[in-house]
Amino acid sequence: MKINTLSAQLSVSPQIMPNDIANIVTSGFKSIICNRPDGEGADQPSFREVEQVAQEAGIEIRYLPVVSGKVSDEQVSEFDQLLEALPKPALAYCRTGMRSTTLWGLSRAGRMSEEQILARANEAGYDLSGVIRRIASAGSTSSEVADTSHQIVIVGAGAAGISVAASLLARNADLDIALIDPADVHYYQPGWTLVGGGVFNAQQTVRAMGALIPRGVRWIKSAVAGFEPERNSVLLEGCRTVKYEHLIVCPGLKLNWDGIQGLSDTLGHNGVTSNYRFDLAPYTWELVNRFKGGNALFTQPPMPIKCAGAPQKAMYLSCDAWRRSGVLNKSNVQFHTAGAVLFGVADYVPALMEYVKAYGIDLNFGRNLTAIDGERRIATFSSSTPDGVVQTHDTPFDMIHVVPPQSAPDFIRQSPLADAAGWIDVDQGTLRHKKFANVFGLGDAANTPNAKTAAAARKQAPVVAHNLLVSLGQGTREARYDGYGSCPLTVERGKIVLAEFTYGGKLAPSFPTWLLDGTKPSRLAWLLKERVLPSLYWEGMLKGHEWLAQPEMVG
């Protein structure tokens, strides 16, 4: 955690963690302001988690969440009032510190000169030139004048973003590409299942973002606030603007931890965990090891979610560990899913049901987790009767693995790029935007009806790269994405049911059935997941090598 001083009364920092509070107290801070909305990042603790530790340490803390790049006059006024009222010195934080600095800069208007505001922010490591223009133009955020301009702009440096950048450069090394993402680190999220199962160490799933951005791509380390596709503009936090000729949008998903009442208050405590967060996956394995019997609950929210098999993977690996340790026969394992079936592609269900029976898992379909009381260890589910009556079910637990509801990020849902449901509105074959011909979308935030997995992004990236070059006149035949997705279902330590399918649930095996029949548990599929796929991700997919991912041409 790096603390940057703006004045004697206020400092700002990137995201703080609960274990940073002790150092914050030692540094003399008396109060904290959180300007980051919950659910923005995969490694982000909730405000409630930070608040609990801060209050125990005697520090006053307030929550003033600001969507990146959308600092309102009302929020500036509220921030100013908090600075006046809270004991000082105060520390404000967000993802990078930029939103907190922006709030401070706008709140100083009329009290400090523009030059003083800009200089003080620069000394702290933040560029407020965009805010200075906003102040000078009485609140205007017009994007007629750009801070920078590029031939191709990519929003999001996750699996999809880095892969498509690398695939573009593999086809034409002279392209002018900028990639926008504020994160310092990049996660191999498919590995978190194995972290929660005690197979991987969490550090095996993370690398520095700067080491992964392809050479020749300009990294704009900022958060996106919105889009003006009619002007070919991306709006960044701090009121900056990036112009483009072609835009690729792949920001991933938002995990709505607050969508389940009480969840943020108890995550990482009281036996409540989730493999969907980097810092919590190790806690899953800790709980599995400590478990001596009782009620173990595993949940799945309404679709769509990333890696729809992940809730079951956590359950099967936990059951296998308990079977090996002799605890399974003392355990009441329950799977509560909002869906109506165990898995969306019927061909894989028989193999999964064999494990459900062997582990003695109690299946509960049509049940959606709505609340958790961590102190009492009670989970509340809702369900509907055939005639539409909503019922609630309070279920005690000794441990619970939770998957939060998920959606496209706010800056996507509120943009002209979104469909009625809030997803990037693209053609499911070409991945070109249905309204804006120079915009493409891929990855988890696109509205394509495929499984939201890294394997899908691996197939989508070459399609987008090829079709964008066609639109630049560097090709004729278009490529098509067939909806491929893969879900290696870890049914026990050492065996996997390798689900591979395209649009409509059509099976799409990568290997002949005599070598690997994905509908049956396989040791070979486990070796693929544990040893081959991580290297394929880091050294292949993210570097533009399209092994087993060559795009299909049409026309």
Automatic annotation (TrEMBL):
One of its GO terms (molecular function) is transferase activity. SUPFAM superfamilies: (Phosphotyrosine protein) phosphatases II, FAD/NAD(P)-binding domain. Residues 151-270 form the FAD/NAD(P)-binding domain. Keywords: Transferase. Residues 4-110 form the Beta-lactamase hydrolase-like protein phosphatase-like domain. InterPro entries: BLH_phosphatase-like, FAD/NAD-bd_sf, FAD/NAD-binding_dom, Prot-tyrosine_phosphatase-like, Sulphide_quinone_reductase. It holds the Pfam family Pyr_redox_2. PANTHER family: SULFIDE:QUINONE OXIDOREDUCTASE, SULFIDE:QUINONE OXIDOREDUCTASE, MITOCHONDRIAL. This is TIGR01244 family sulfur transferase.
